[in-house]
Amino acid sequence: MKNYIYLFSVLLFVSCGNKEQTITDTTVKTDSSVVENTSSFVFNNKDFKELSLPLNIDTTFIQKVDTNNRITYQQIRQLGVNFVKGELGEGLVYDINEFAQIDSLKQSGGYKAYLETLDIGMTKTCIAYKVSLINLPNSNKLFIWGITNATFEACPFFSGTLLIGTFVNKNQQATLFNIAEISGGGDPPAMMDTKTEAKIGVDGKIEITCIVTNDDMDIPGVAIEKKTFTLVATENGITVGNSKTEILSKEDEPKLDQ
Question: What is the pTM of this model?
Answer without folding.
Answer: 0.80
